Amino acid sequence: MPITAFYADARRAHARFDLTAAYAGQVSAASRGFALLDAHTVLVQDELTGGENDVHARWAMLTSATVELDGATAILRLNGRALRVRALAPVGARWQVESAEPPTAVETPNPGKILLTLHLGLPAKSTARIVVIFEPAEAEAWPVESVPLAAWSSEAALPLERAK
How many domains does the chain have? Predict the structure, then answer.
């Protein structure tokens, strides 16, 4: 998983990765970016380019938290703390909770865990962007517009600021 860009300063950091090899035969290109927007807010952005065939894409995270769903927003609660997870893209995204039990007995079990997931269809040769933001549930939500991963450089911070 090659790192294709990295930037960090005293306030912000971001990294971009090429995940294409991990999804060979499923998509023609896959990239992921992680951005630390402030001391408590993380943005994860995936960009996919479809291959020769339509595919079903699933974004998932494993958690032991309890989850409350409200469309594109999920609240995760664990040990008296709460985390808001928002799906900013694709438009119309809705969180789902799924079993984290592996489909085969040879895989490691996940007792006490669930999957928080987004699903989308990716038509052949099309592109899609999945943008997820993690922030304290009690904080004001970041009004973020995503920036294409190609603009995530090693030279400067992302042009994202919290609205005043």
Answer: 1
d(CA 33, CA 160): 14
Q: Tell me the pTM.
A: 0.89
Residue 143 belongs to a domain: no
Can you give the CATH number for the domain in which 112 is found? 2.70.98.70
Bridge partners for 63 per DSSP: 114
Burial class (CB in 10 A: 0-12, 13-18, 19+), 95: buried
End-to-end CA distance of the chain: 37
pLDDT digits (tens, 9 = 90+) for 26-66: 999 999 999 998 889 999 999 999 999 999 999 999 999 99
Q: Is 18 exposed, middle or buried (0-12, 13-18, 19+ CB in 10 A)?
A: middle
Q: Is residue 158 part of a domain?
A: no
Angle at 57 between CA 151 and CA 20, to 5 degrees: 50
Q: Is residue 157 part of a domain?
A: no
Question: For residue 105, is it within any domain?
Answer: yes
Mapped onto helix, strand or coil, the DSSP state of residue 28 is strand
